[in-house]
Amino acid sequence: MTSCLVDIIAGARPNFMKIAPIIRAIKERQNSGGCIRYRLIHTGQHYDSRMSDDFFTQLGIPEPDINLEVGSGTQAEQTAAIMIHYEKLLLENPSNLCLVVGDVTSTMACAITAQKLCIPVAHVEAGIRSGDWSMPEEINRMVTDSITNYFFTTSEIANENLRRASATDEKIFFVGNTMIDSLLSNMERLCPPSFWNKLKLEAGQYIVLTLHRPANVDAIEALKKMLLSIGEQTRKLPVIFPVHPRTAKTLSNLKGLPENIHIVEPQPYLEFNYLVKNAKAVITDSGGITEECTVMNVPCMTLRDSTERPETVTIGTNELIGTDPENLKPILDKLFAGKWKVGGIPEKWDGKTGKRIVSILEQLLNPATDD
Ligand code: UD1
What we know:
Elements: E1 4-10, H1 13-31, E2 36-42, H2 53-59, E3 66-67, H3 75-92, E4 97-101, H4 105-116, E5 121-124, H5 136-146, E6 150-153, H6 156-164, E7 172-174, H7 178-186, E8 207-210, H8 214-217, H9 220-233, E9 239-242, H10 245-251, E10 261-264, H11 269-277, E11 281-284, H12 288-296, E12 300-302, H13 311-314, E13 318-320, H14 328-336, H15 353-365
Parallel strand pairs: 1-2, 1-4, 2-3, 4-5, 5-6, 6-7, 8-9, 8-11, 9-10, 11-12, 12-13
Helix pairs in contact: 1-7, 1-15, 3-4, 4-5
The structure holds uridine-diphosphate-N-acetylglucosamine.
Uridine-diphosphate-N-acetylglucosamine (UD1) binds next to α1, α5 and α10.
């Protein structure tokens, strides 16, 4: 059997929980004769230990084989830097396949670079669409999928989106959600954050808040209005707000936050999901967190007008409430009246997605394999 080298690309925080189960599955297969070798490439898009290293440690991801160390920059600067560094690597040491996950800048930049060197691209979490071109992630998704050879998807809706964009069925693999693989395999290990006792937190008696989308956090007045409204509408419950570096920049110029909003550092994976699992509700503008809330059956309010993950609304516990702070009152009234919907779990979000992906990759890269 010929062995094949797969580049696994990770750049930013939401990538790390998506690659961990794939790496684990490759290693398991290697122990029983699997043909795939991998090279883990960290682009360096996220570099703070709280945004990166902590996740590697907690999720048991091995040290990256290569770190492109691109660091901060504008969208174009980061894209260019990643492409230049990754191209150099591929020219010196080509791989057989470039596997990208999610929708961050690193995903798109590495997909373009590999495809231009005729190295096939596999995209995990392909096909999801918000329809909102003001989000850099939507552009990243569309560009990546337009040059992807093998699509690994989380939902039937994603499959449909891809078909509509002319992808053919034999290239689309509905495998489930690797982010949920990570969550399910770590459920027993979730642990309270260091401030749990100090803030006297109790299960079901606090709210978790995350905000980092440019549209929500870059304008100081809009952010202030939103936080004042959240402080007011959450019935004095503590609101735990782990702050992303982008949000921290705006917050550093903001005085007079409501007393029940507690700003904390970005949390490691196990602590963050412990907070979510035990929260009364989550208010967020993230996409991935809406999936985790759905699986943990935690009420989730998304401060956006659209979502690329509609199943979290139609099947799960998520509600889209837009970005107007006025919308918070009726939705929180519903929460406090105990009338939040009970969610279900989307198909194939069962903890086995990493294994499915690796088994398909083995067939694709080594069609003669019959085990
Ligand atoms: C990126 C992703 C977004 C994801 C988010 C999660 C893109 C287009 N967006 O957005 O989808 O939800 O990560 O965290 O890829 N910074 C640090 N330390 C770090 C990383 C960043 O201080 O380790 C600072 C940067 O200097 C910059 C800001 O945070 O000022 C934003 O970082 P960037 O990686 O550009 O995008 P995110 O907003 O984190």
